[in-house]
Please model this.
Amino acid sequence: MGVPEHRAPAASTRRLRPVTERVLARFPGPRAAGIAAWALVPWLNAGANLLLPADLRTEVWEQSGALVVLNYAALSAAVVLTVWGADRIARRIEELPARTGTLRVDASERFAEINGVVGPLLAAVATAAAFALVTLADAGWGPAALRAPTWFVLGVAFWGFLWTYGALQLGLDRLGREPLGRDAAAADPTLGLAPVGRLAFTGLWLLLAWLVPVMLTALEDVVAVAVGAAVLAVALASFFLSLARLHRRMVEVKNREVGLARSLYAEAYEPVRSVRTLEELDRQRGLLAAADALEKRAHAIHEWPIDERTVARVLTIATSVVGITIARLILDPFGL
Model:
């Protein structure tokens, strides 16, 4: 009998469905229509606020008209982005087994938390209750009764995405516990892990694209800015921490390959060292060149599944947002 052929693990038959997709499945009509209806919730809240006396409206309405419109537009865009983004992350995870051959990936097992429902729903209830209590203390029962259901509906979208993002980070950390194949170095300088890096970055840029506009249009609300900044800090930390195990695996492979190349070079150079003639050097030239090329290739192996430019872009965006936010909070009391 021959040696069985190694095959990449088959994609999981169990679909990953974030809570937002489960909610959309209950909407009649096309999925896009359900997302559009979900995105209209902030504007329904805005219309209801206009029917309230001015002194009973939330603090958002104390800003200029342009900022109020931008705030509600940012919330609508955030709903679209988070609902669409959670599904995109789930689909990219399901495609991962076919894209990388150096890791054994079972999406339904490694990223199973994406299918969780109770966690994001409880978080949405807690968010709605918190907003309701704050509004109740400031403006009374009417505005509180309006704000609570609004933020529950928005919270399902937002916390559904955050839950999916957290499950992504947890799954990436689990992937780092899997040993890389012995032939990983033969794949490419990324050890075949570039799809994993792109998946991690997809989750992060979706989070930034959602969070940054909301933070910049809610600068009057110090609590909202503080929560947004905390989420941003946690997201950045989890992004790198989730890839830390893979980073260590890649460093191990790189060190192993560099060590192998150096030992081959030393072996090829040993006759030259012993004889010390140009003729012997000429005879070993091909082997020395091959060993040298092998060492250069080993040094070119990446230590992270993401490239340095991606890391630089992430840090630039994050520091710019934090800097702008802090500057606005400091200068706003002075009318600047």
